[in-house]
Design goal:
Blueprint lengths: L11 H24 L3 H13 L4 H8 L3 H13 L3 E5 L7 E5 L1 H22 L4 H21 L2
Antiparallel strand pairs: 1-2
Keywords: DNA-binding, Transcription, Transcription regulation
InterPro entries: HTH_MarR-typ (IPR000835), Metal_resp_HTH_trans_reg (IPR052067), Tscrpt_reg_MarR-type_CS (IPR023187), WH-like_DNA-bd_sf (IPR036388), WH_DNA-bd_sf (IPR036390)
Pfam families: MarR_2
């Protein structure tokens, strides 16, 4: 019996990557043109809006972005006055990143656009299918985290 051959077009990790890139690219174009944000910068703003003060290391762990990407995005957002660095009372070697008033205003403007884009992408799908898809993505993440380490 001949071993199963890899067909890239039917390979699920490849399909996930292609789909993720298409969605990320459309989001990136919208955020860049409307708000001057890159995807990593938007992720930082969103995570900080959800969590309050958080370290760069914790952002990296939560988003799976590498240290350099998180650092560059944080520097850019601090330079634009959207983030502030505060001393971390629990660890003197790190800082907590917090949204400034301008950062909170930006989040308030971007979040509805993000939700609208998500709605447009998934409008053609049954809500039960979307729920099942999100469940499957979370399960894939959990399995991948256990086998990838």
């Amino acid at each position: 019996m001949e071993p199963k051959r890899l067909s890239l077009d039917d390979f699920i990790p490849y399909r996930l990557s292609i789909t993720s890139n298409l969605v990320s690219d459309s989001i990136a174009r919208a955020y860049e043109s409307l708000f001057g944000l890159t995807i990593p910068e938007w992720r930082l703003v969103a995570v900080i809006a959800e969590t309050g003060g958080i370290t760069q290391q914790a952002i990296g762990a939560k988003t799976l972005m590498d240290k350099v990407t998180v650092s560059r995005a944080a520097i850019a957002l601090v330079d634009r006055g959207l983030l502030a660095r505060q001393a971390n009372p629990e660890d003197r070697r790190s800082h907590l990143l917090e949204l400034t008033d301008a950062g909170r205003d930006l989040y308030a403007a971007v979040a509805p656009k993000a939700l609208d884009l998500e709605s447009r992408i998934f409008a053609a799908f049954d809500p039960a299918d979307v729920t099942q898809f999100m469940d499957m993505l979370r399960r894939i993440e959990a399995v991948t985290l256990t086998i990838g380490r």
